[in-house]
What we know:
Elements: H1 6-13, E1 23-25, E2 32-34, H2 46-53, H3 62-71, E3 79-81, H4 95-108, E4 117-119, H5 121-131, H6 136-143
Parallel strand pairs: 3-4
Antiparallel strand pairs: 1-2
Amino acid sequence: MSEFSMTDILRVVGVEQKSSRGRKKCGKCKKYVGVRTRMCSCGYDFKQAKIDKAKPILEPDYADSLAIAARYQFEGQARVIYVPCGKCPYKFDNMENWVENVVRSGFSGERELGDRVIYSRSALTYWLRIDNADKVDELNEFLGEKVSN
Length: 149
């Protein structure tokens, strides 16, 4: 009695080697197997493949936000705000004063909610674009190069 591979059996039964519901493609031999198959007959380990492809989840400019906080000697814990809601707490007069006032207002808990926050570069840019869109490049120059990718 000779042994048959699953591909041979499926071919006899009439299941084609193509994408369909309940099937996934092997990353090594490119054959389709059942979705619950953990290891292909060629030795490809589906579970290991998912772990290898996983990337760490990082906020878009978290490191950059920490750099802004460090620049203004922030200490303690706070939430990072990426997209603020409502109007900016300060009117723009000049870049240095505006950034310092906005960033420090988050540290002190002067916000309506009373919690301490760190405003990210994207939050500052968001507010600046509303009334002073022409100042966004100046903001980026003032804050320096981005820390995060």
